[in-house]
């Protein structure tokens, strides 16, 4: 996205979100804005509240306080399916793929194309799903050995790319990527960063990218939010900050929490 217009309406917004689990206050007062076509990097150390925030944005949890808005309208998701119906897709760390199924079957999992055998019996239309998967992955510049290959035989980066492609195929308003670079080498991480850049340039998809290693995602984000101890304490455009500034902030936060 181009530089945010102050008058623009966020496609996804959280205001004053709080969430506790017994005596543990996971989120204290989180306010977040994601604009159409923007890539927002949400970074923070383990235990900062990133997972809880994702679960609230996607309907797994209800906030104890605060509000959520989609394109300026208040929403209250009662389930992940309801969030998905409103155009919010999420790729979690476990990816949600079935390793023993081929790529094209995973792409259409639970929304398979069907055809009529002998004009009566409904059967899977594998030919159509293979063709559409092949064309779509080529469009996204995702390279894999074959759409007929079982997902379990692909590399970690290729599996992550397939999970992202499947979510984008649904034309979501918002795509949330949960630690997409976790435990990946430089080459596979580069594949995912290139895919995010492709979505940003050509699909105008609003992306909330959750990350632990902020240096890896700095180049693809428009803004960076730092979540620490259940609060967003830093919100800057990448043009107004640097990896060095974030490093100093992270170290200061670490010293404070361990001191």
Explain what the structure shows.
36% of the residues are buried. It is globular and about 70 Å long. The N terminus is likely disordered. Among the domains are: 35 residues, no CATH class; 26 residues, no CATH class. With 259 residues, it is α/β, with parallel strands linked by helices. Helices cover 32% and strands 27% of the residues. The strands form 3 sheets. It has a 6-stranded mixed sheet, sandwiched between helices. It has a 4-stranded antiparallel sheet with strand order 2-1-4-5, with helices on one face. Helix 5 packs parallel to helix 6.
How are the secondary structure elements laid out?
Elements lengths: L11 E10 L2 E11 L4 E5 L6 H8 L7 E6 L2 E3 L4 H6 L2 E4 L11 H5 L6 E4 L3 E4 L1 H14 L16 H13 L5 E5 L7 H17 L3 E6 L2 H4 L5 E6 L2 E7 L5 H16 L1
Parallel strand pairs: 3-10, 3-11, 6-9, 9-10
Antiparallel strand pairs: 1-2, 1-4, 4-5, 7-8, 11-12
Helix pairs in contact: 5-6
What keyword list fits this structure?
single chain; 32% helix; six-stranded mixed beta sheet; alpha/beta; 27% strand; disordered N terminus; globular; 8 helices; 259 residues; 12 strands
Low-confidence stretches: 1-6
Quaternary structure annotation: single chain
What is the first-to-last residue Cα distance?
Answer: 40 Å
The portion of residues assigned to helices is 25-40%
The backbone outline, from C-alpha atoms, is: globular
Structural class assignment: alpha/beta
Strand content: 25-35%
Cα radius of gyration in angstroms: 19 Å
């Amino acid at each position: 996205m181009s530089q945010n217009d102050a008058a623009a309406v966020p496609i996804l917004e959280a205001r004053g979100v709080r969430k506790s689990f017994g005596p543990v206050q996971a989120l204290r007062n989180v306010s977040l804005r994601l604009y159409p076509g923007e890539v927002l990097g949400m970074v923070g150390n383990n235990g900062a509240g990133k997972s809880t925030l994702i679960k609230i944005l996607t309907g797994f949890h209800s906030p104890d306080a605060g509000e959520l808005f989609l394109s300026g309208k208040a929403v209250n998701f009662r389930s992940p399916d309801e969030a998905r119906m409103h155009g919010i897709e999420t790729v979690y760390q476990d990816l949600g793929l079935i390793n023993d199924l081929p790529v094209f079957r995973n792409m259409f999992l639970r929304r398979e194309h069907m055809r009529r055998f002998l004009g009566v019996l409904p059967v899977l239309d594998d030919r159509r799903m293979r063709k559409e998967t092949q064309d779509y992955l080529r469009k996204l510049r995702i390279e894999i050995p074959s759409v007929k290959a079982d997902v379990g035989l692909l590399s970690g980066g290729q599996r992550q790319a397939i999970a992202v492609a499947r979510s984008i195929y649904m034309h979501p308003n918002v795509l949330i990527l949960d630690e997409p670079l976790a435990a990946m080498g430089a080459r596979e991480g580069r594949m995912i960063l290139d895919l995010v850049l492709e979505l940003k340039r050509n699909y105008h998809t609003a992306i909330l990218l959750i990350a632990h290693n902020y240096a890896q995602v700095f180049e693809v984000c428009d803004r960076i939010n730092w979540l620490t101890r259940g609060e967003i304490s830093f919100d800057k455009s990448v043009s107004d900050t640097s990896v060095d500034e974030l490093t100093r902030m992270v170290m200061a936060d670490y010293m404070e929490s361990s001191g």
